[in-house]
Amino acid sequence: MTLTLNQSDWDELQKQAPVTCPDHLKLEDFEELSVLPEVLGRGYELELELMPGVRLCFADHEWQQDTIVKTPAHDHPIQISIFPSGALYFDAVHPNLGDGHSYFSGSGISPSVAGMLRAGRRWTCVDIEIDPELFSSGFLTEQQRDSDLLKPLLKQDDWKVSFYPTLTPAMQTIAQQMWDVPYRGELKRLYLQAKVMELLVIYLDWVAEAQQQPVHGLKPDTVTRLHHAKELLATQVEQPPTLVELAQQVGVSKRTLQRGFRDLFGTTVFGYLHTLRMKQAEQLLRNRQMRVSEVAHAVGYSHPGHFTEAFKRTFGMTPKQC
């Protein structure tokens, strides 16, 4: 059975968990420790404020059962996440992360997302978050802020842009060096600050190279807009925009949206939306907290009979059987 937690559930469980420092850790004044509640598994998270606006977190977990953690839409920082072991699994918005794939995101608005951590497998993560205002005003010149490379990372009130680079030996080495930092005190913080900047440069170089390499004959800017369209659909399953509206929202023509979506993701816009609806419906039905008619409405079907037919075609069983 899969356990599902929303953000408030997760926060409340963490507040209740007694904090016991693992024997191998020696905390600095600028570090904060939290532990995975025993009812969920075992492990810890170690958070460090490297400087105002730059946060680093090391997580080491092993979960007792498959657990989905739901995060609502929120303002998003610039973020780098590397997974030395384990993986984070998604039905929508993101591909699965870990197992050789890392995460790099610009700032802006993040859609709501649900990520699953699987039981019985150690999961470790090195996570870096940089305040977009600090990045823009403290790290960049005016010319850099307007560059084609860095502009997508500073979306402000627009949907953020995400990238999923393959984890290279250089990225993995730096992540391991950060985990096994050889210094204490302020030297430790300085060392980690330098490693964060080193990783940031590597990821920006990856983005620059990716922008120069057309994907399926599509321009890099078009690829970014199509990923944006995919994220928008994931946040509007119940009442999705029309093709024309979606194309306008991401700044491409209807024809480019249709052809590009098929070439890039291997499915049509409506095919992807259908997959999202069916996966969400299956999850809601298995939780047994809603009637079939309520689930049908929640995933955008006004007629329960049409929902039942679509669900049976997809899964080979009726919603009630599920």
Question: How are the SSEs ordered, and which strands pair?
Answer:
Blueprint lengths: L2 E3 L1 H10 L14 E5 L5 E11 L2 E10 L3 E5 L2 E3 L1 E8 L1 E4 L6 E2 L4 E3 L1 E4 L2 E5 L5 E8 L1 H8 L2 H4 L8 E6 L2 E2 L5 H11 L5 H28 L7 H16 L7 H8 L3 H12 L3 H19 L4 H7 L5 H12 L7
Helix pairs in contact: 4-5, 6-7, 6-8, 7-8
What does this 3D model show about the protein?
The protein has 322 residues and is an alpha+beta fold. It contains eleven helices and 15 strands. The strands form three sheets. The protein has a seven-stranded antiparallel beta sheet with strand order 2-3-4-13-7-10-15. A hairpin with a 5-residue loop joins strand 2 and strand 3 (41-51). It is globular, with a radius of gyration of 21 Å. The protein starts with a strand and ends in a 7-residue tail after the last helix.
Kindly name the structural category: alpha+beta
Q: Name the average pLDDT.
A: 87
> Shape, please?
globular
Radius of gyration: 21 Å
Count of individual beta strands = 15
Distance N to C terminus? 14 Å
Q: Which assembly state applies to the chains in this document?
A: single chain
> What percentage of residues falls in helices of 4 or more residues?
40-55%
Strands ordered across the widest β-sheet: 2-3-4-13-7-10-15
Strand content: 15-25%
With helices defined by DSSP (H or I, 4 residues minimum), what is the helix count?
Answer: 11
Keywords:
322 residues; alpha+beta; seven-stranded antiparallel β-sheet; five-stranded mixed β-sheet; 11 helices
